[in-house]
Every structure is written in structure tokens, then in C-alpha cells.
Specification:
With about 90 residues, the protein is mostly helical. The chain is built from three helices and two strands. The chain has a two-stranded antiparallel sheet. Keywords: Membrane, Transmembrane, Transmembrane helix.
Length: about 90
């Protein structure tokens, strides 16, 4: 059984270091072309052959566009609600 000091030493081991995270995967196709993909559901579909590389890139771009749109809409709605409450209270 580990003592409390040993557990603290293990937790403090990587405190000042960055932890490595896999953000890109390089795959080689049957034709010898290297493809750079992200480790995500869409990337897995490309890796298993369910999607072509062009479809993968289109879905990836579409996801980023939706994220930007939803983020912008939520910020605008918070600002509008804030202004509405401000004018209601004044």
C-alpha cells in the first residue's frame, strides 16, 4: 500500500511539464499518399474507409463553421438579454 507521501510525489511528478496530447495522425493510403487527420469520429470514419479525404475535410470544415455560428449566436443572445434586463431595471 502506498503512503500519502508517495502518492503526492506521483501527483507532483509532471506538475511543471506539459502533458503530450495527440492532435494529428499521419496515415498512408494504398496509393502512398500521406494524409494528416485529427483523432476524432470523422477521422476514424476516414481511416476505416467510410469517407474520402475530400468528404473528411468538408465535414471537418462544416463542424468548425457550426461551432463558430453557435458560439456567436450564444454571445449575441447573452448581450441582448443583458441589455434587455438593464433597460427593464432602469
Amino acid at each position: 500500500m502506498k503512503t500519502e507521501n508517495q502518492i503526492e510525489d506521483l501527483l507532483n511528478l509532471n506538475r511543471d511539464k506539459e502533458l503530450p496530447v495527440i492532435t494529428k495522425i499521419i496515415l498512408e493510403g494504398d496509393n502512398g499518399i500521406l494524409y494528416s487527420i485529427e483523432p476524432s469520429d470523422i477521422g476514424l470514419k476516414f481511416a476505416t474507409g467510410e469517407l474520402s479525404y475530400n468528404e473528411y475535410k468538408a465535414l471537418q470544415k462544416d463542424g468548425k463553421n457550426k461551432l463558430f455560428m453557435y458560439g456567436s449566436l450564444s454571445i449575441i443572445s447573452f448581450v441582448l438579454v443583458g441589455w434587455g434586463m438593464l433597460f427593464y431595471l432602469i
